[in-house]
């Protein structure tokens, strides 16, 4: 498990390899990830949007920006957490992701970023 804390918001990431499949005459490698966002601060916060950089071993980078996470903009009071699952497709059996969440502190009304640590995506058969 990969973890990082930014401004009292703890991000924990667990990954899984989901399998391979062919699409448009090309092999794809499917990965899942579960993220837990835990509010360890004294203030209530809301996740408003996300920014991802997705890398594969073939040097391609995909940038993904969007509102919330899986259609939600969770509000986290002190001590609360939000867990969700998502996934991505890579063109190679090894890759990585990193990014950040844009959040709002309800006490100060200030916006801030919470960094998502770089986490590796690897198919078990690709590692020695």
TrEMBL record:
SUPFAM superfamilies: ApaG-like. One of its GO terms (biological process) is error-free translesion synthesis. Signal peptide: none annotated. Residues 3-128 form the ApaG domain. InterPro entries: ApaG_domain (IPR007474), ApaG_sf (IPR036767). PROSITE patterns: APAG (PS51087). Pfam families: DUF525 (PF04379). It comes from the Bacteria. This is ApaG domain-containing protein. It comes from Kordia algicida OT-1.
